Amino acid sequence: MDRPLRVAVVGAGPSGLYAADALLSQENVPLTVDVIDRLPTPFGLVRYGVAPDHLSIRSVRDKLDGIFERPGIRFLGNVEVGKDLTWTQMEHYYDAVILAYGASRDRELGIPGEDLPGSIAATDLVNWYTGHPDMPPDAFTELLAGSHSVAVIGVGNVAVDVTRVLSKCANEIEHTDMPEHVFAALRGSGVREVHLIGRRGPAQANWTTKELRELGELEECGIVVDEGAQVDDPASMTAIASDKATARNVAVIEEWLARPPTSHPRMIHVHFRSRPVEIRGTGRVQEIVLERTTIDEEGRASGTGDLHAIPVDVVVRSVGYRGLPLEGLPFDADRHVIPNVEGRVMDGSDVRHGLYVTGWIKRGPSGIIGTNKKCAVQTVSAVLADASEGLLDRANDPDPESVMIALAHVDVVDHEGWRRIDAAERSLGERAGRDRTTLHDRSDLIAASR
Ligand code: NAP
After folding, report:
1. Which of 32, 100, 249, 403 has its CA 20 to 30 A from that of 164?
2. What is the residue with the minimal CA distance to atom 29 of ligand 1?
3. pTM flag (> 0.85)
4. Ligand 1 centroid – CA 197 distance (Å)
5. Which residues contact 150 (CB under 8 A, 6 or more apart)?
6. Looking at residue 403, what is its pLDDT?
């Protein structure tokens, strides 16, 4: 090709930015990259997923921000592909498109009562407390103020985050970058009991030890574990013997089991081998019904028919994220991913030339932030190989200015605009004695970017 390849990356979270970085850190194929995001701010789940009190993980954004220093990259924030730019336009302006838009919705439990008021998705709660522009500021204020007891379903890291944030006292969150309305709602929260519920045993939980341990170290909160925590079945014994991380997790639970009973203003109750079968209530959540399970030789849960109910005011469903389909593109509705082979989008057995995926929409919602780096490198290798074979010469109008002309009607936030938002958030935080206060309102974000 006698001009630089034009690549669009859709999604400015870690997976998209790692892909941009991998594209721009090679010299074999000259190219330029536009990183497009429907939000006015970059960093995806690092901004709207990582818990606000996990400051060291959130600081990954500084590293990701450095990728925008590379020559040949642009940030086009507040641009929705499919709406502000149609797919026909994308094909017109770009030789290759890498989809890195993640998995933004919650998975469902599929049990009666799931839709009762007070049954909420962890994805919504996390979006709210991190200040996502799509969440109304008062989304959970009343619910939290009027609630005492919350059930969190699922024993992954998101469930741990949600449990910790709901169980911390005001003192423990003051330093974070949560928006002011979230501070106010958490200060006014009536929640004093959180039930963290796993359908299998401690050896099958998905959390990481560092995150798990924090639950036992909160200022005003005690922790108790129920009798489902014994690990006496063969599958759990094998898992502990063969995997150090599992053994460490189980050791944390055993340490909690051995703690003498104490009295605290707040409590976390951890339940294992407890499968949710129904959420009950008249007009709102009032209790959750759990069935005791046993763990079979493969480590799967099977119900025993032994039911018990816990009175709760809120159920937070934290059973994983799922990706959403894009109109006109193939989608695997069972795995909630776009079918692909090593990042190349597949339509049945045919390759969709010029279209790639990376991150959670490629492989499903698993792994830590760093997992996306390896995933992006694999996808970018496919892009570069296809470019070298002359398969990507498709853009009719590859002039980088043409797409900006097409977006003249949109308030595009570029990287300079993000820098101004960043400065505004830091200055807002400084006034409150914090490093940063997140701006949550889309029009405030756009105004700050000007
Ligand atoms: P996850 O790790 O997949 O955990 C989902 C949990 O939901 C599992 O315990 C699963 O149990 C349970 N579950 C699924 N369906 C269920 C059902 N019908 N009834 C009851 N329980 C059910 O998902 P996640 O917590 O959303 O996390 C997503 C990814 O982000 C993970 O890779 C996670 O490590 C990562 N993350 C990392 C951090 C961090 O590093 N600090 C923070 C947040 C998220 P089964 O195992 O029995 O299916």
Report:
1. 100
2. 366
3. yes
4. 12
5. 166, 191, 193, 194, 195, 312, 313, 314, 315, 316
6. 97
Distance (Å) of CA 234 to CA 295, 297, 306:
9, 6, 21
- How far away, in angstroms, is 104 Cα from ligand 1 center? 14
Rg (C-alpha) for the chain, rounded Å, is: 23
Rounded CA-CA distance 276/392 in Å is 49
Question: Is 155 touching ligand 1 by the criterion CB < 6 Å?
Answer: yes
Q: What's the confidence (pLDDT) of residue 2?
A: 84
Give the pLDDT score at 227. 87
DSSP H/E element including 290: strand 287-295
Closest C-alpha residue for ligand 1 atom 38: 157
Helices (H), 139-233: 141-145, 157-167, 170-173, 180-187, 209-214
Q: Contact, 291 vs 274, CB < 8 A?
A: yes
Q: Give 241 Cα–ligand 1 centroid separation in angstroms.
A: 22
Q: So what's the pLDDT on residue 230? A: 86
pLDDT at 291: 98
Spell out the domains of the chain, with CATH numbers in brackets.
5-104+323-413 (3.40.50.720), 106-320 (3.50.50.60)
CA torsion 149-154-160-166 (nearest 10°) is -20
pLDDT at position 327: 87
Mutate to test the pocket of ligand 1, among 290, 319, 337 (most ligand atoms within 8 A of CB): 319
Q: Are the beta carbons of 139 and 124 closer than 8 angstroms?
A: yes
Residue of 50, 107, 157 to test ligand 1 pocket, by largest number of atoms within 8 Å of CB: 157
Residue in 442, 317, 436 with CA at minimum distance from that of residue 52: 436
Q: Which residue's CA is the nearest one to ligand 1's atom 18?
A: 109
Extract the residue ranges of the chain whose pLDDT is less than 50: none
Token pair of 258 as six digits: 């051995």
Q: Which of 15, 126, 152, 206 should be mutated for ligand 1, with most atoms under 8 A from CB? A: 206
Burial 258-269 (b: 16+ CB within 10 A, else e): eeeeeeeebbbb
Dist CA 290 CA 293 (whole Å): 9
Please report the pLDDT score of residue 64 as a whole number. Answer: 97
- pLDDT at 262 (0 to 100): 86
Task: List, in sequence order, every residue forming a beta bridge with 76; answer none if it has no partner.
Answer: 36
Which burial class, exposed, middle or buried, applies to 206 when counting CB atoms under 10 A from its CB (0-12, 13-18, 19+)? middle
Which alpha helices (DSSP H) does 308-441 contain, by range? 360-363, 371-388, 400-406, 415-431
Question: What's residue 393's pLDDT?
Answer: 83
Helix (H), strand (E) at residue 221:
strand 221-225
